[in-house]
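Subject: for your reference before the review

Hello V.,

The reviewers asked for a structural picture of the protein, and I figured it would be easier to keep everything in one thread rather than splitting it across files. Below is the amino acid sequence we used in the manuscript, unchanged from the supplementary table.
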Amino acid sequence: MSSADLLTDAFSRVHDAVHQAVMSLTPQQLSFRPYPEGNSIAWLVWHLSRIQDDHVAGVAGTKQVWQSGEWAPRFGLPAGSMEHGYGHTPDRVAAITVDSAEVLTAYYDAVHEQTIRYVSTLTDADLPRIVDTRWDPPVTLAVRLMSVIDDDLEHAGQAAYLRGMIEYG
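And here is what came back from the structure prediction:
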């Protein structure tokens, strides 16, 4: 198995987890927060999608999917907003809303497709490339991609947990 195969498999697992967490939920269920400061499924999936979009586009040197689809208004944000959720207050979390699960999966799927197109081109020789010198030690491509996968799976798991609370209360 190549590095590209491994990364493709990992991001495909995120894809499956996202779809399982949101499929067939209503807008009200997607906006459910277990307590006033908690995150909703809509926010969690939006956030993990935004971070994946931002970070993968950054290392790939491409435009974010978010920038090419009038996505912001579909999530309750002003047109042109580049928010991704870091530092969101409870009010900002509550502001992230969708009309349907399909909005969440449409954006995530577009990000996933761009991600798979990129990671499928990678070789082992690409992975040690430094992509962020703001950290000590500097961040390599391998570390950045694994960080995205880890963050995505954590948030997808949180969304799945919330789904269980909604369905089985």
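For the response letter, the relevant points are probably these. The longest strand covers residues 130-132. The chain has one domain: 3-168.

Happy to draft the paragraph if you're swamped.

O.
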